[in-house]
Task: structure prediction
Amino acid sequence: MDVEQTALPGIGLRHEFTTRSGRRIGIVSHRTGRRDLVIYDPGDPDRVCETVTLNDEEADALAELLGAPRIVQRLNALHREVEGLVSLQLPVPPGTPYVGRPMGEARVRTRTGASIVAVVRGGQVFASPGPEFVFEGGDVVVAVGSRESTAAVSDIITRG
Amino acid sequence: MHTAILFLELGAILLALGVLGALALRVGISPIPLYLLAGLAFGTGGIVPLATSEEFISVGAELGVILLLLTLGLEYNADELVTSLRGNARAGVVDLLLNAAPGAIAALLLGWGPVAAAAMAGVTYATSSGITAKVLSDLGWIGNRETPVVLSLLVFEDLTMAVYLPVLTAMLAGLSFAGGAVTVGIALATVSVVLLVALRYGRLIEAFVASPNSEVLLLKVVGLALLIAGAAQKLQVSAAVGAFLVGIALSGELAEDARALLIPLRDLFAAVFFVFFGLQTDPTKIGPVAGLAALLALISMITKLLTGAYAARRAGIARAGRARAGIALIPRGEFNIVIAGLAVAAGVHPDLGPLAAAYVLILAAFGPLAARLVQPLITAVAKRA
Result:
């Protein structure tokens, strides 16, 4: 699949591609931060027939929905399951082993069975952080799992 | 007493412009033609001639031109200009040749002389980037695949202006060929130096201008623009080009912030500028040239359609998109009036002002309407094909 990038002088950038079913869709990124989700007319492939304007928050939400469907599914499954499901907020104190290292290296899910569903940093929430997410001292990790597994996450974060 | 009358007149004008702007918004056309009409009504031979505020308005109009060009420059950065020049030079040259020709030929046929021909070439050449940008966004054409073609033609035109305006200024000043050549040389050198400085040392200028305080930023940007504009005028390079180049030298977030601060100011003074042009034009003189203006408008609509079709075809756009590219290029507006204003101030030909006014009135009003009317038609045709 090829994503085509075109500069729009004075406005910003446009990315577009054609889906396997033959529809062409694109994103216009304005310099002001506004995003337009555009869908091209099948009868006139150069013309946009539908434009949906998104602000920062909405664009993030859409990206998350499209980019992380499996994480959402997993969370839903977890919530439906049982009582005994624990969600813990674990601080990452400065000077602990994983500060400055990507989350993937902690292999939390493999080692404990619990999932890190979010990291809170300075009041900002990073939902569904990927393995490349780098911890900083003072982060708060939100882990979901059984009582034992979340306790194990706490051990990993503080002691390595 | 003088101040009281000045305020009364200015207040009445601005209020009238506001009401006209609201009307334009409702009908879905650009307010520029209505501002011009307001100027015609207030000016000599108009319905309500002004007594005292003309002097203030003329200074306001000069500021309007500076601010128009400054904000235009802020929209682009030097990288974009260079890339666009490389990629679209051929379409840009076609645009220049096809659309400068109607004005120049008309002036020559009328026997107005080469200087008027140069000015009229500019009047028919430049598409109004302001009106076109608005048409693109109002009709939801920004995402369209022919839109980059249209935008890069606009960039090319604006850059051509940076060379054209100094040349025109030199011609209007009635300099000898040698003197004119020197001025043009200075102009070209200035433009290249500024572009080079903007590309290489843009950061230094930005570091100087940047401020977290919007008041400081506003004063620094406007101050710098006026200073460079004044210096450019002294060198016979045209103040407008100086301001444009300042806008280009600033880029990124800083340019974005500065533009947001300047836009209200620009809207105020640009409106004053259009009124001022109308003021200088005697409405009774428009009647005799109206037919000519309509003919010129028709011809240059066709040449813009051809330009758009050619440029879009080169970019691999299908037939409907080619038509849309041409239509988007039809509106004329601020630049054309800026050029005509320079020519009128130099007293090139008494009929040039009325002709340019009528011409821009037609195309600024009709361009966006055409786009709106033709859109469903093009879509229907494309669907059937």
